[in-house]
């Protein structure tokens, strides 16, 4: 991947994420850090204890630099890099109080985002050679959507819509409330003609309706494998097809062989297991 592919959210957004983390963790002040000499300097090494794909370095750095602008942080890896278990990936030197106060928040960001990137990389590897693109969803940690969607890109995945404002996804309840697939599609084209129009369908009859309505993309919700293949044959390139539902590492490879364009996986950002990282400090 190129640095452009992995462009992280703006410094202002990262700063806001860190400020929220500090507000809930440090609050009015770190009472334990007060026990350390005010002028004490320390060094630390960060070790990754398992195989992982890194993501979240900018958030990690921002945590320490907000409390100690002069801190020295030196990385041997970049976001998107694969890291072997036992690797020392970062060296830090600065004010001891700032380091112990920032440690937990910094690790929370790095562990969560690296966990997202690592899970994404595993799913991407499972569809290698098929041309299918693995997508995230809106099932993200509240307040950290852009951070997690960045982590998905670090793992080789692609982003679905960011929120409810940048694409239209007509789902079951929208269809019911709008009076059908065609009325919903017509309203979408009239009100938001520049936005991607995606329609979720639950059977082949609804697929036909979505194709007739001119959807840009159609989401096959919980289709069986035979129905996925039939849907691909019916669509014949008239609309992009996306699979959603019952997707995990045991199924995604077989789903990708059906000929669809995208597979969305909520678990990338919803069922995240933090990467095991260890920060060890010593006084200078």
What is the topology?
Elements: H1 11-25, E1 41-48, E2 52-53, H2 57-67, E3 72-75, E4 82-83, E5 87-95, H3 96-126, E6 133-135, H4 145-154, E7 168-170, H5 172-178, H6 181-191, E8 197-201, H7 204-212, E9 217-221, H8 225-235, E10 240-244, H9 252-256, E11 262-264, H10 267-270, E12 277-283
Parallel strand pairs: 6-11, 7-8, 8-9, 9-10, 10-11
Antiparallel strand pairs: 1-5, 1-12, 2-4, 3-5
Helix pairs in contact: 1-2, 1-3, 2-3, 3-4, 7-8
Keywords:
12 strands, alpha/beta, about 280 residues, 10 helices, about 40% helix, 6-stranded parallel β-sheet, 4-stranded antiparallel β-sheet
For the largest beta-sheet, the strand count, sense and barrel status come to:
6 strands, parallel
User: Which strand order spans the largest sheet, edge to edge or round the barrel?
Assistant: 6-11-10-9-8-7
Tell me the overall shape. elongated
Distance between the termini: 38 Å
Q: Summarize model confidence as the mean pLDDT.
A: 96
Count up the helices: 10
Percent helix: 40-55%
| Number of E strands | 12
- Could you name the ranges where pLDDT drops below 50 across 5 or more consecutive residues? none
Order of helices and strands: HEEHEEEHEHEHHEHEHEHEHE
Proportion of β residues?
A: 15-25%
The secondary-structure class comes to alpha/beta
Short description:
The protein is an alpha/beta fold and 284 residues long. It has helices spanning 11-25, 57-67, 96-126, 145-154, 172-178, 181-191, 204-212, 225-235, 252-256, 267-270, and strands spanning 41-48, 52-53, 72-75, 82-83, 87-95, 133-135, 168-170, 197-201, 217-221, 240-244, 262-264, 277-283. It is elongated, with a radius of gyration of 22 Å.
């Amino acid at each position: 991947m190129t640095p452009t592919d992995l462009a992280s959210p703006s410094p202002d957004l990262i700063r806001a994420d860190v400020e929220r983390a500090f507000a809930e963790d440090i609050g009015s002040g770190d009472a334990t850090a007060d026990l350390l000499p005010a002028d004490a300097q320390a060094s630390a090494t960060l070790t990754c204890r398992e195989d992982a794909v890194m993501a979240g370095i900018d958030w990690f750095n921002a945590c320490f630099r907000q409390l100690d602008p002069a801190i020295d942080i030196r990385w041997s890896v970049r976001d998107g890099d694969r890291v072997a278990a036992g690797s020392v990936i970062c060296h830090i030197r600065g004010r001891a109080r700032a380091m112990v106060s920032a440690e937990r928040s910094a690790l929370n960001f790095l562990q969560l985002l690296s966990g997202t990137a690592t899970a994404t990389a595993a799913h991407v590897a499972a569809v290698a050679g098929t041309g299918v693109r693995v997508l995230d969803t809106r099932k993200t940690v509240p307040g950290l959507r852009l951070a997690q969607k960045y982590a998905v890109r670090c793992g080789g995945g692609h982003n679905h819509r960011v929120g409810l404002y940048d694409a239209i996804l007509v789902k079951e309840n929208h269809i019911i409330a709008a009076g059908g697939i065609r009325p919903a599609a017509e309203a979408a084209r009239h009100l938001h003609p520049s936005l991607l129009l995606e329609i979720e369908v639950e059977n082949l009859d609804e697929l036909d309706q979505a194709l007739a309505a001119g959807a840009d993309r159609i989401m096959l919700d919980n289709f069986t494998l035979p129905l996925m293949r039939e849907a691909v044959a019916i669509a014949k390139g008239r609309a992009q097809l996306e699979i959603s539902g019952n997707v995990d590492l045991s199924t995604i490879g077989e789903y990708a062989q059906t000929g669809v364009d995208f597979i969305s996986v909520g678990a990338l950002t919803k069922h995240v297991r933090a990467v095991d990282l260890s920060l060890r400090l010593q006084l200078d």
